[in-house]
Design a protein that fits this description.
- The complex is a heterotrimer of chains A (372), B (463) and C (520).
- Chain A is built from 15 helices and 16 strands.
- A 7-stranded mixed sheet of chain A has the order 3-2-1-4-5-7-6, sandwiched between helices.
- The termini of chain A are far apart.
- Chain B is an alpha/beta fold.
- The N and C termini of chain B lie far apart (71 Å).
- In chain C, the strands form 3 sheets. Chain C has a 7-stranded mixed sheet with strand order 1-7-6-5-4-2-3, with helices on both faces. A two-stranded antiparallel ribbon of chain C has the order 8-9.
- The N and C termini of chain C lie far apart (64 Å).
- Classes of the chains: A alpha/beta (372), B alpha/beta (463), C alpha/beta (520).
- At the B-C interface, helix 1, helix 2, helix 3, helix 4 and helix 5 of B face helix 1, helix 3, helix 4, helix 5 and helix 6 of C.
- Strand 16 of chain A pairs parallel with strand 3 of chain C.
């Protein structure tokens, strides 16, 4: 039997219907409620739970959750009797999410399910890191992170598959935007971290077009090719992300998941470098930038790698930028181009065009990068 | 007079009114409206420059059979050619099954709709694995030369080494294939042979083997017919250097000869045309590769592996497995490229082995080996004829040398042809050091009379 | 008025047939082998003494012992559990060009005048087959515009490999073998266009389709050609059936940097008499004679990938090649610059023979009729599918016509009902359809389906085909579980968890199955 922890952020999604972009912060929430916002997250969770019940074998799971709006009510509506492990105050906040996670962690959940948006995902990410397997039920206004199921019923189906050991796991991006900027009409999501999520590789597709896709192996293929082709004395600026991390892992070097590490002659020269350090380090010496594609949106610059400033990028030039991404990641873009948002239109223009994306050991796909 | 539109028997919709109805449904006047976006400079102007067609089946039959009549086949003349394609007996049931419309015309249909095909393929691998005494056999390759090239490429991938030691007596066709196949990385080193026995010179092998050697390759029986009876020793030398031992075998010989798997081979390969498939001017070739059930070997096969799965009802399904190995799964990242090879022959091999059983195969081997020894003995008695490597047992082929009579093989073969005999393959270009030599082959279809007549005619020609 | 289409109440043969190894009865014989003549035995003595002791088989192979009628029956049953192409309207297997293989051609290859020819016979005794090969080459030259053909490759993949080998030889001869180490292909070209050159050691650069046109972008190609470019391996139309009208421009771009262009024309069915590779500037091409040229597919071979090249490259083709001196046809083994061998002897000549007979039965007009009908059939079927079938679409260039095939998507159906393309494919078997081709890896189009209604299918076949998918779609929307648990009427039922990740779990032979199950 699988132990599933359920945490609902009851206020998630409340801003959307009333024209607010997110509910992070107490003031916004009050505004949302005064505008007549309703609890979306609970309804969506009920849908997910119903789908789970329908598809999962009997007695294949047990739900641990919090009292009231943070899970108990949703379970009742779905006809499930859960074990309550945490009792929040009437007015819940981010701290309750963290507290709930802590209680669940003590009880060794097989999987943590949360209903919310990017903000909730960030809270979960801070609380569990890579210590738990999670899945998000999409219920917030902002869904930029790749840790959510495509819709609530799919979350339920995925959990049912998980109960029958038919799922795999992968690391996915937790993205969030600056809500103040968002409310002012600017979209600027950035990478905040990674969560280990459950997902269902398409079994039949894998039968026809290759074994169950192994992300890790593909990342190592990319890393090995990069390492085998590293030029002497050239500085390699390794950007943020799990695809780039594989390079550092293969080199057995410490790494910064959300920062830039500089490697020369296969040795770490500077860890988590900021723009200033980068500029000092490279001076006028040869260097290359290695970046991965962020999430499903296709950003390569301007999302969580501000260290690669316009000055750094202009010094590098298009020809010294190596984009790395697995073929699955490229295919998931569904034909959409890679995106540049360096904050400087001249730089964006300079870097736009076609790139040979490295997607495995000696596998090269030509892909276009544009700016908006 | 207006030319009447032809209605083609192979094209049901070539009837005008049907075509019109379909174009109406599509909403166009003609095909031109559909393909108008093809640039004009890419279009063929007028009709292709082809001969006048033979539209009726009667005409095409007369025409094609008229051409085929110009051939003289091995069922008309007495054949002593082998060298990689063999005139063995084809049991009637083999032809019956591979003529079946379902098998003949199926392609890559899946485990449900083409269950029978998939099971037949699994039976092919199962029967071959018994014959070779190894657990893993992949779907048949294009031919025996592809089987050798892929086996050796597997050795390269498994060991990470690039050098291959092959016998100097290796079939030149296999060698040419392998050389082209691995041109970008392989270094091929020939190991000398013992002039008396033809066998690989183990001293030379010891000298040439090193930690660069990916594999030591032998043919057993060899291209020149003799048996490498110390193959086990070669395998030990290979293994001591960390190299693989790859053996190309005539699978038919395994009815009475030991499988290379049991004298140390890591990979066994060969051509199975001998198993119930007509020569068809070389069309009948089909290769196999076998290994032990070891992950590093399995993952280095580039071909389809048909795995067995059971469903809830306890039914067996047979499906292509571990497809990431193949280029269908991972394109250029795959072990090697994979395309359509020779599935119908794999099924024919399954039928053949089911018919033969262990007893049939043993009797067949005995028959062939008897005839081979007899032919060698008989021909050796002719003045001016020498059998090369006589101190050795041969399976079904042997080298006849004519240096003693001063005549060229080409000339001799022309004379034999006048006597309705296809003489052995001329080796004078492939192995100049063997002088005027020819590779002779006998099978169960070669009678004592055939051999006696050959000896008689040769004696006359050489006299 | 459209006639109402009655769907069949179909059931495939289901024999529950054991594995052949289980049929063994010790002592039974499927066939007897005569012993060598007494005279020989007397002369040689005991054959057991001739076999070297070290090579004597210690344990007889564990092959089954089965009487002849039971062997025949077993394989006949397996054949009945195989749909193949001729019994069903095999419209589904796109890119494979499943068309009628004329029965008369089968008689030719089974004629002893062909079947019993040894490849090394004196040319004097094989003038008929040499003439056929020679004339087949002349026909293919006319069809493609190329100047020389080799029939040695035993399939499409091997033909692409052989083309990659010629490409390498060409650049090497010009002293650029090392420098020109990159080939360019497209993601929608058959995987061998990436894999065969990679096997030959080339670095592979892959172009993605433009999201609007579905065709590779000229700009993308421009961005990757250089002095390292050896060649472009490309299909047109690709699996989508969309004709790439910029193909000549792409060829010119590659030529401008010194590379060569190779057309994969494995499936040529929509182009006979309409477009020739050479006219678009291609330097090489290949045809799958078992596809467009009617030779049967034979459960995945044997077959022939006819490799065509322009004059300058003919010297690199595999050897030998058939020549004609005005009187006699002969094998020419000369050619120091030849790449050597890609297959033993001359390839699958049986396939060449059938293809030649087919070309001769069709003629120039007939070949054009093949293309025209293939195009009409395809667009007719597309109209029916997109109009009548809920949940299906044809992404890229919507509303435009296609050539000989279409890659459809069941994405909408999957979103709406949870029923995806694999479910639908299995369900199609219940209506007597051969499984259909989905897509090569990766799936750029979600939930793909790629049928190809060649000229061999009638209007009634197409109507029935569309009606079946209309019905299955209705089922998906009304009773998704029905489709998801299909098939019910094929030789075996659904396997819930096919596929393995661990090679240790592989069961590729009966003896491994027995070992795993602890059976004797």
């Amino acid at each position: 039997m699988k132990k599933i922890g359920l945490i609902i952020n009851p206020i998630a999604g409340m801003g959307g219907r009333v024209g607010l972009k997110g509910t992070d912060g107490a003031d916004t929430l009050q505004k949302a409620i005064s505008l007549g916002a309703k609890a979306e997250a609970e309804n969506k969770t009920v849908k997910a739970l119903l789908a789970l019940q329908e598809a999962a074998p009997e007695n294949s799971f047990i739900i641990y959750t919090c009292s009231g709006k943070m899970g108990e009510y949703a379970c009742q509506k779905a006809g499930i009797s859960p074990i309550i492990v945490y009792h929040p105050d009437a007015m819940t906040g981010a701290q309750d999410t963290k507290n709930a996670v802590e209680e669940m962690q003590k009880r060794n959940m097989d999987c943590l399910v949360f209903a919310g948006g990017d903000g909730t995902a960030r809270n979960i990410c801070q609380a569990v890191g890579d210590q738990a397997l999670v899945l998000g039920i999409p219920a917030g206004v902002k869904i930029h992170s790749a840790v959510f199921a495509t819709k609530p019923t799919n979350a339920g189906k995925l959990l049912a598959a998980f109960c029958q050991n038919k799922t795999a796991e992968k690391e996915s991006e937790v993205m969030d935007i600056d809500e103040d900027a968002f409310r002012n009409g600017q979209v600027s999501a950035r990478l905040y971290g990674y969560l280990r999520i459950i997902y269902a590789p398409n079994l039949v597709q894998s039968l026809k077009s290759g074994g169950v896709f192994n992300n890790k192996e593909a990342n190592f293929g990319i890393a090995d090719y990069m390492i085998d082709h590293m030029e002497k004395d050239v500085y390699y600026l390794i950007g943020a992300g799990t695809t780039t991390r594989a390079i550092m892992e293969r080199l057995r070097l410490p790494y910064t998941l959300l920062g830039v590490d500089i490697v020369q002659n296969k040795k770490l020269i500077c860890q988590d470098a900021n723009e200033k350090e980068i500029l000092e380090m490279i001076d006028n010496k040869p260097f290359k930038i290695v970046v991965s594609v962020i999430g499903g949106q296709g950003y390569i610059f301007g999302r969580g790698n501000q260290q690669f400033s316009p000055v750094v990028l202009q010094k590098a030039g298009k020809e010294n930028i190596q984009i790395i991404a697995t073929l699955d990641k490229l295919v998931a873009l569904q034909g959409k181009p890679l995106l540049l948002d360096t904050g400087d239109s001249v730089t964006d223009k300079l870097l736009a065009g076609f790139y040979q994306v490295l997607s495995g050991y000696d596998e090269h796909y030509v892909y276009q990068a544009v700016y908006e | 007079m207006e030319k009447k539109k032809i209605v083609y028997p192979y094209i049901p919709n070539s009837v005008e009114h049907v075509k019109k109805e379909m174009l109406d449904e599509i909403g166009v006047e003609s095909v031109e409206d559909i393909i108008h976006k093809i640039p004009d400079d890419l279009r063929v102007k007028g009709l292709l420059d082809l001969p006048e067609p033979k539209l009726s089946e009667i005409e095409i039959k007369m025409y094609m059979e008229g051409l085929l009549k110009k051939n003289i086949s091995c069922s008309e003349y007495t054949n002593f050619l082998g060298a990689g394609c063999y005139n063995h007996y084809v049991p009637a049931v083999c032809d019956e099954i591979n003529s079946r419309s379902e098998f003949l015309t199926a392609y890559c249909g899946d485990a449900y709709t083409d269950h029978g095909k998939s099971q037949a393929i699994f039976e092919f691998t199962s029967l071959m694995s018994e014959l070779v005494d190894m657990d893993v056999v992949a779907l048949a390759t294009y031919d025996g030369s592809q089987a050798v090239s892929t086996s050796l490429s597997m050795a390269h991938r498994i060991t990470g080494r690039n050098e291959f030691l092959v016998p100097e007596t290796m079939n030149p066709e296999l060698l040419a294939h392998f050389a082209n196949y691995t041109e970008n990385y392989a270094s091929i080193v020939k190991v000398a042979y013992d002039k008396k026995t033809g066998k690989m010179d183990l001293t030379d092998l010891q000298k040439k083997i090193s930690d660069k050697t990916a594999a030591v390759f032998v043919e057993n029986p060899s291209y020149l017919g003799f048996l490498q009876d110390d193959a086990e020793e070669i395998g030990k030398i290979a293994h001591a250097a960390g190299a693989l031992f790859v053996v190309n075998v005539d699978p038919l010989s395994l009815g009475s000869l030991e499988s290379p798997a049991n004298y140390g081979a890591d990979i066994v390969c060969g051509d199975m045309q001998c198993f119930g498939i007509h020569m068809g001017y070389g069309s009948g070739l089909t290769g196999f590769i076998a290994s032990h059930q070891k992950p590093e070997y399995i993952m280095n096969f580039p071909q389809h592996l048909y795995g067995l799965y059971e469903n809830e009802k306890g039914e067996f399904a047979f499906m292509r497995s571990l497809n990431d190995r193949t280029s269908y799964g991972t394109r250029e990242k795959a072990n090697e490229y994979l395309g359509t090879n020779s599935g119908l022959w794999a099924i024919t091999v399954a039928v053949y082995l089911s018919l033969m059983g262990p007893q049939g195969l043993k009797e067949l081997c005995d028959n062939v080996m008897y005839k081979c020894q007899y032919a060698m003995k008989k021909l050796s008695q002719i003045k001016g004829v020498t059998i090369l490597f006589p101190d050795n047992a041969n399976f079904k082929e042997f080298v006849v040398n004519f240096d003693g009579c001063g005549k060229k093989v080409a000339k001799i073969n022309k004379k034999l042809l006048e006597n309705k005999i296809f003489g052995g393959k001329d080796l004078s270009k492939e192995f100049p050091e063997l002088g005027e030599s020819a590779l002779y082959c006998v099978t169960e279809l070669t009678s004592k009379d055939d051999i006696d007549r050959l000896a008689k005619k040769l004696a006359e020609i050489l006299a | 008025m459209q006639k109402e289409i009655k769907l069949r109440n179909f059931h495939e043969a289901k024999w529950d047939e054991p594995i052949v190894c289980e049929l063994s009865v010790p002592g039974q014989r499927g066939i007897l082998i005569p012993p060598a003549e007494k005279g020989i035995q007397n002369e040689i003595g005991d054959i057991e003494k001739v076999i070297p002791a070290s090579l004597k088989r210690k344990k007889a192979p564990n092959l089954p012992e089965i009487a002849q009628p039971q062997v025949l029956r077993h394989y006949l049953r397996l054949s009945q559990e195989t749909m193949g192409q001729e019994i069903v309207a095999d419209i589904g297997l796109g890119t494979c060009t499943m068309k009628y293989s004329p029965k008369i051609n089968e008689q030719f290859v089974r004629n002893s005048k062909f079947a019993d020819l040894h490849p090394l016979q004196d040319d004097e005794t094989t003038q008929g087959i040499l003439e056929i090969i020679y004339k087949a080459e002349q026909c293919l030259k006319a069809i493609s515009g190329m100047d020389a053909f080799s029939f040695q490759p035993g399939g499409g993949g091997q033909a692409v490999f052989s083309n990659a080998s010629v490409l390498k030889a060409y650049h090497t001869a010009r002293g650029e073998g090392e420098q020109r180490n990159e080939i360019i292909t497209t993601i929608l070209s058959h995987p061998v266009n990436a894999a065969s050159p990679a096997t030959k050691g080339f670095k592979v650069i892959t172009l993605m389709p433009d999201p609007k046109t579905g065709c590779p972008s000229v700009e993308a190609l421009k961005s990757v050609v250089s002095e390292h470019t050896a060649g472009l391996f490309i299909t047109n139309p690709e699996d989508t059936g969309i004709f790439n009208s910029q193909i000549k421009e792409m060829v010119d771009i590659v030529h401008s940097v010194g590379g060569l262009c190779i057309a994969d024309q494995a499936d040529y069915n929509g182009l006979f008499g309409i477009c020739r590779a050479r006219d678009a500037g291609f330097d090489m091409c290949h045809f799958n004679l078992h596809k467009s040229f009617s030779s049967p597919h034979g459960c995945m071979g044997p077959c022939c990938g006819a490799q065509g090249v322009k004059e300058e490259l003919a010297q690199y083709l595999p050897k030998p090649r058939v020549k004609f001196d005005g009187e006699k046809y002969y094998w020419d083994y000369d050619g120091k610059t030849s790449i050597g061998k890609v297959r033993k002897f001359y390839g699958v000549v049986a396939t060449v023979l059938r293809a030649y007979a087919w070309i001769m039965a069709m003629g120039a007009e007939g070949l054009r009729e093949v293309a025209d009908t293939a195009i009409i059939n395809n667009n007719y079927l597309m109209k029916k599918m997109l109009t009548n079938v809920k949940g299906i679409s044809a992404p890229w260039q919507e509303g435009e016509f296609r050539m000989e095939q279409v890659r459809y998507s069941w994405e909408k159906c999957k979103e709406d009902t949870g029923v995806g393309t694999e479910d639908i494919e299995r369900r199609a078997g219940d209506y007597g359809l051969q499984s259909y081709f989905l897509s090569h890896h990766p799936w750029l189009i979600a939930e793909p389906m790629t049928p190809e209604p060649t000229e061999a299918y009638s209007k009634a076949d197409l109507d029935e085909y569309a009606a079946i998918f209309e019905k299955i779609s209705e089922e998906a929307y009304s009773d998704p579980e029905l489709v998801k648990n299909a098939p019910y009427k094929t030789a075996i039922s659904k396997v819930s968890h096919p596929g393995i990740d661990d090679p240790n779990d592989l069961i590729v032979s009966w003896r491994v199955y027995k070992k795993k199950k602890g059976l004797k």
